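Before the break, one more example. Copy the sequence into your notebook; we will annotate it together after we see the structure.
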Amino acid sequence: MKSPNWLGCIAAIGSVFLAGCQTTGVTQKLHTEMYPPIGQVVSAEIGESVLERTRGYGAPGFRVKDLEFEQGGYRFFLPGALYQINYESQEGKSTAYGYGNIRSLNEGISISGSNFQLISGPTDSGCTLQVSNLNLIDRDGKLITNWVSGDQSEQQDENAIAIGGRTILSGSILRGSSALFAVDVPDDQCTKRYKFSDYGQTFRQELIYLGRSGDELSFKYREFSGSLARPAFSADLKYDLSESQTIGYRGARIDVIEAGNQVIRYQVQSNIQGI
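Here is what the structure looks like once it is written out:
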């Protein structure tokens, strides 16, 4: 008995997905990460770390902040997270795979499945969000086709596969496209950071911005072992900007460019010393 054509399509597409998943290439190792890089002007909001030093077992990844983007007349949202890099090429290209995290911001529109990659070249600034599968479902449960090109026709795509009344792969994938679309994510929303294990001997030091009162800036220094804070190694710190625009603690030196009760902009001159 001859197999239906769609079974062959599924097998072919499955092999492509599996091939992508097998490009691990990156394993966990003992690493010390200090962030932000020395000399780079960055900003942090109240409650966020202005300086971090972490040592433990982990793997490189992309730290992505909440991201909203638009395509084909539809609006989408990717929640902020740290995505572990699965593959690094000899040329320095890094790729992280993500599944199911993209959400719709349009009323009455849902997403039945999504696959995407975060990609960057040899530099550490910014990344590209490359979406390879994104099935949009209307309020009646019907697949919305041809939306990538802006054609929001309700005509069913002849290449879509449906089993038991449910579409499992969109026509855009079946036509052999490696990516439906791509979004450039700037370096203030996507940075290369290590994804450390919460178990074992991971040790983290951080300096957190707490706000400004007059010329006085407030910070909290904390140390973590694994995912647990160590209260005995916490300290509340205050600095007077009228005396100096440079603040320091345990070897760290930070030049304050501007500071308010929402955001601080600064530049790190030296990192905090390890314990």
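The first strand starts at residue 29 and ends at 35. The radius of gyration is 23 Å. Try to locate both features in your own notes.
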